[in-house]
């Protein structure tokens, strides 16, 4: 294990670079008034000093045509504003090639510090396999390797470029499926204020956003300063019928969990009883009735207290500046500091006697409220009076400073740049509403009577605030003094730091008959360090909060790359242009050693209207600090046990039934959920016992091969039309994954893969008591499909100008293998836990502009998905089709859905701009998917990628 013990070594260097960065940002301000330098000679090398906003995504060589050489999707400032969205993450999620990330704002049950952020997952390969850059440079990441796009202020974004092929040979780790490059504005004159207010159709979830940007530019310098504020209110499950129950309006009484009425286990018989509703004397057995776990009479609809989408506040300050030290050398810098607060709520804790960890938690034999005096009595009861609240705070700081310049060599212009970047993410998560097990054990302990009142028997405990707890009393039966004594509020902290030094050099090497052979090369040194410090009480298992161990670790990487662009033919028959590009990057990590990744591409223009292109790229994803060094942690999983005799695969598959029997599972075994009820559908249930997840310091990197082939067609006979068609195929090996409980069980029993059968243990009655989800390099993932883009600007008319844009993605294949010897699972077209693997996603936009007015209509289409049946007889339109998710028989094919967005805009005569819009104009609801997981999805059965309501907004921008 590489322990993070050298952070102090970087303090001096960080202070130095921050001073340089601030000089780059603030220095021009002092010089603006006296800047009288004459205009530069436009033929001098300094004219070729490219500003930030011409960064080439996917290549370090200046001058390659980004729009044609590689499959790059671009969204400019106008298109971003037309969405009506205020978060960069939400904007990118609208792209057809974007899938649902591992963590969404609806993931209100997550115990991760990443909860509340906005992340991007392209090609459905996961957010950790999508590299996010700002002006070609890495941005801040969390301990788990996620980049929160909400920390990048939308106000300074000039455009978004998405490179839709592998680029590890250029950028290094993580650039497997795609690269998102956020290009910021580098020159701005004047000031702009922009405000926006939006609200959902249900009247909640209001979003308020405001930004202020000021800039000043001269021939030698530019400076931009700005601030932004965003406030998004919480959306509650209870406000809408779609999410008001655990499994949606079609099954409103299913998914009820442990209730708020005190339940006990008879020490003599093991039978369970619940106190009669409204009873005050809980010590009398006559005031109890038998507990029926399969009835909702004594249970609780937890959706009443759950957040559907977490609320958040984001404050951001940024500064960026450039100053030409000479005609050939420019100093530049950027500083950004953002604070994000996220808040969410979950229902009160389902407290049981086995919650007390190894020591248990029982009503003492000498407790006055014990209905079985003389016995340690087991109990169960949800503390609905004490909802669990989460407040997550993330403080993200990024600063980079560097020099760039030009010179002449070998009769060609050369560009160079050197950059130092420092990023830091400090996150904390405070949770209330859990139970302090130490105090709860005392409050449930022996009691005495003092002045006619029941009191804790121990004088020392009374002096420390102990108050007797009648845990069996129903809602409203517990005094506030007791809640204050037994409640727990704890805080965990997380910090990640990145120090990055990059140097690049590019220019023309030699003239060939078809043009100039150009080359780029560079080196990079990066240090990643991180730590996670759980609350000591949580880590020690002294509260009901999920226990986790500390994390501390880091690694360093040294890299070098070369890239060549070679023109082969030009102005030849059937070869208006033919060129190849090759690049190679060597990376050496202290955590696992070195590796080399290569990329080869070509572009061929047989005639003016048509360009053909293709790439072959090797890629990799290095394990994150959390992957390697995170301490183990608890989690409660929801899954369907294949050995369940009614809904599991064993019910219809004799082979699965035999394997379950051989493992000692009883033939009539029924899976039970957290409330003790037998599961009632193919959705399974949440396990009563916590499972463990953990890191693995022996992990090696994931490896990938990306292939693309495509064309760009711009016919001269139809001016204004552009068409792109690209094929992609990505194969990933040695996938780093925390295989979830449902997959582990399915791989063991359904896929008959013994690799997984040692990861869990069962009790004699068949229930799973422990399961290991430790990270491993195991299996492979492959995806294949097509991207189609059609863009047409109609000839101008007296009614205005019209433009039609269509961008679509077709998913041909998405195959997962659990191990090299296992059968593949073809998942394309399925709802797979946290993301829909749509066969087709498409955006169609019609834009109209006339004088000072304009309007945009956008249709967002998601094709239908296969989902697990509710049961063999309900919501199962294809009962004989194998379900590759669960391994059993039967799927439910759900239809597609389209959301329509409309925006009107008006440019005022006083340099203002008004925009009014409605997203999801027709208030469409998507289908219910029972495969949606509460981890990532947050609020099953609704798909987190879909709009939940109609959304209205109005915005105003004023330039000064």
UniProtKB/TrEMBL annotation:
Keywords from the named record: Cell outer membrane, Membrane, Receptor, Signal, TonB box, Transmembrane, Transmembrane beta strand, Transport
Domain TonB-dependent receptor-like beta-barrel residues, every copy: 344-921
InterPro entries, per database record: Beta-barrel_TonB, Beta-barrel_TonB_sf, Plug_dom, Plug_dom_sf, TonB-dep_rcpt-like
The TonB-dependent receptor plug domain, residue ranges: 67-179
Membrane topology: Multi-pass membrane protein
Keyword Signal assigned: yes
Pfam families (alphabetical): Plug (PF07715), TonB_dep_Rec_b-barrel (PF00593)
Record's keyword annotation contains Membrane: yes
Record SUPFAM superfamilies: Porins
Family: Belongs to the TonB-dependent receptor family.
The protein, known as: TonB-dependent receptor
Organism: Luteibacter yeojuensis
Top-level taxonomy: Bacteria, Pseudomonadati, Pseudomonadota, Gammaproteobacteria, Lysobacterales
